[in-house]
Amino acid sequence: MYESTWRFISADGFLGLAFSEIAATNTTTLFETLMQKGLVDLPRFGVYFGKEFMNTGDVVDGELTLGSSKEDIYVNGSMTYIPLRQEIVYQVWRTEFKSISVSTKNMTTKTLPGSGSRAVFDTGAGSMQIPPEMIDDVYTSIGWNFTALLHGDHIPRCSEFTDAWSVTFDFGGWDSVDGQYAITLSGDQLSRPGFAGSDDNCYPPFESSEVFGFALFGTPLLHQLYTVWDFGAMQVNNYQPRVGFGQLKEEYKP
Fold first, then answer.
1. Which of 43, 222, 225, 226 has its CA 20 to 30 A from that of 128?
2. What is the chain written as a DSSP string?
3. Any long-range contacts for 150-155 (C-beta under 8 Å, 24+ apart)?
């Protein structure tokens, strides 16, 4: 196959960094094949997306490490590891989703999703999508209006994305300690120039997932961090998967 509509086909993810349960029938993903054949040292892979975000050009400085990870090289401080939601079979990198907090100079506002909410981390997704029941309140906490963004009445200027505000995503179940599995990004980290064809305008940081209680975190989040995708064991029956996130050292930041 040399063409793809990228929709309704198993080849949507050509490399396969999720789990074999959603791979094409009677196939195993590349990395799970390597694990099951004993060809890697550790049941994990690490991803550094590099400094470039919108255009890789001729220089690609990202790194995918299979069978190990390089947090000692890329990460400033310690890693935060988030366990996946316990499931009969693992399909994607899915965890429980607890809240989103927006902090400004004056206050911190916490927004809660619906009960039983979940979030998926996806190396191939190009957006951050949050549950529709949260999105109005999250944008209001930043000082923006989601309806105005949708209708083009507010086209965000990149100058609005500053370190004066930040967004914290708290993952894990309701029985987890607040902040135990939290990831924080400042406003300037959420800046992605090029919206409306202008380098002075930045893309709104969040879209609605349009699915109650569901969030999707793709490259706008992952690009800002070093990530470790740990299966916890080489064999499927022993998996204890978790995803690790670490703040990048200054020289590796986008």
1. 43
2. -----SSSSGGGSSS--S-GGGSSTT---HHHHHHHTT-SSSSEEEEE--S-SS--TT----EEEES---HHHHBSS--EEEEPPP-SS--SEEEEEEEEEEE-SS-EEEE---TT-EEEE-TT--SEEE-HHHHHHHHHHHT--HHHHHTTS---BGGG--TT-EEEEEES-TTSPTTTTEEEEEGGGG--B-GGG-TTBB--S-EE-SSTTEEEE-HHHHTTEEEEEE-SSSSGGG---EEEEEEBPGGG--
3. 155/195, 155/196, 155/201
pLDDT band of residue 24 (cuts 50, 70, 90) is confident
The pLDDT assigned to 17 comes to 86
Which residues does 75 contact at the CB level (< 8 Å), separation at least 6? 226, 246, 247, 248, 249
65 - beta bridge partners? Answer: 46
CB 62 within 8 A of CB 46: no
- What tokens were used for 186? 């400042």
Decide: 245 and 80 in contact? Cβ < 8 Å.
Answer: yes
Please tell me the total number of residues recorded for the chain in this structure: 254
When pLDDT is averaged across residues 60-74 and rounded to a whole number, the result is 93
Q: What is the spatial distance between Cα 230 and Cα 232, in angstroms, rounded to a whole number?
A: 5
176-205 burial, b for 16+ CB within 10 Å, e for fewer? beeeebbbebbbebbbbeebeeeeebbbbb
Q: Which tens digit of pLDDT belongs to each residue from 181-235?
A: 999 999 999 999 999 889 999 999 999 999 999 999 999 999 999 999 999 999 9
